[in-house]
TrEMBL record:
Record protein name field: peptidylprolyl isomerase
Coiled coil (UniProt feature): none
Molecular function per GO: peptidyl-prolyl cis-trans isomerase activity
Entry EC no(s): 5.2.1.8
InterPro entries membership: Cyclophilin-like_dom_sf, Cyclophilin-type_PPIase_dom, Cyclophilin_A-like
PANTHER family: PEPTIDYL-PROLYL CIS-TRANS ISOMERASE-RELATED, PEPTIDYLPROLYL ISOMERASE DOMAIN AND WD REPEAT-CONTAINING PROTEIN 1
The keyword Ribonucleoprotein is assigned to this record: no
Pfam assignment, any one: Pro_isomerase
Domain PPIase cyclophilin-type: 78-255
Keyword terms: Isomerase, Rotamase
Enzyme class: isomerase
Length: 255
């Protein structure tokens, strides 16, 4: 599909499909506590299961004690370096907490929609569990779904009117360039106003404005976007699952 020529109707349909079978299908399940026994370093932490009631308190305290903001995701296609935003403290703390505990070392990029996004964080073979909880949304008009944006998945239906995020499923936007006309339509739909800089980003490098103010963007790729493009080329089945899994290892790196 030529995304430069797509209409708002087609874009909305793409979003609906992705929400129904992709980003929206991310509900954490409650299972027994486990520890990271496959961590490559000796810094692994025990991962205490959280609930939606305890998550904010725990993550708020964790955020103050762990100022990490640089992340490295390693895959068989190469490495991706990301910067996490301090203005989304709960999401940053949650991602760092799971990373330091080794939780994401048992995950993979398990859903790929070329030209849209690649989704990771989960795996059918994971033994380590983090509890059943959601993270309050932290929408910030500064942070849009430009190409390379890192955001958290969530349920997208009436069961989640507050648009709270998944506990662990994340996605990185690949996206395509948008037209100004499309952006104006999304401004009206989401009751937002893009800055001239944001319009330039969307019309040049691209992204997915259909997701703005629907999912929390909490970071961005600063190196290795070509790796995302390689993952997006993976052959997939009818449910956008890669035929060959793309495992990932995630760690924090020096600031």
């Amino acid at each position: 599909m030529n995304y430069m020529k797509k209409t708002i109707t087609i874009d909305a349909l793409l979003l609906m499909i992705f929400l129904l079978i992709g980003i929206a299908g991310c509900q954490p399940k409650t299972e027994e506590q486990a520890t990271a026994d496959n961590r490559e370093t000796d810094t692994a932490e025990k991962l205490e299961p959280l609930t939606s009631e305890s998550a904010v308190e725990v993550l708020t305290a964790y955020e103050k004690a762990h100022p990490d903001s640089l992340i490295l995701i390693s895959t068989r296609h190469g490495d991706i370096k990301l910067r996490l935003y301090p203005e989304t403290p709960l999401h940053r703390a949650n991602f760092v907490r799971l990373t330091k505990a080794g939780f994401y070392d048992q995950g993979e990029f398990y859903r790929v929609v070329k030209g849209f996004a690649v989704q990771g964080g989960d795996s059918d073979t994971r033994t380590m569990k983090n509890g059943a909880y959601k993270i309050p949304q932290e929408f910030n008009p500064r942070y849009i779904h430009k190409r390379g944006a890192l955001a958290m998945a969530r349920y997208g239906d009436e069961r989640n009117p507050e648009k709270e995020s998944s506990s662990h499923n994340f996605y990185i936007v690949q996206g395509e360039p948008q037209t100004v006309q499309e952006l104006r339509a999304f401004e009206a739909k989401h009751n937002i106003k893009y800055t001239p800089e944001q319009i330039k980003l969307y019309t040049t490098i691209g992204g997915e404005p259909s997701l703005d103010q629907e999912y929390t963007v909490f970071g961005e790729v600063i190196e290795g976007m070509e790796v995302i493009d390689k993952i997006a080329e993976e052959p997939v089945n009818g449910q956008n699952w890669p035929h060959n899994i793309v495992p990932h290892k995630i760690k924090t790196i020096a600031q």
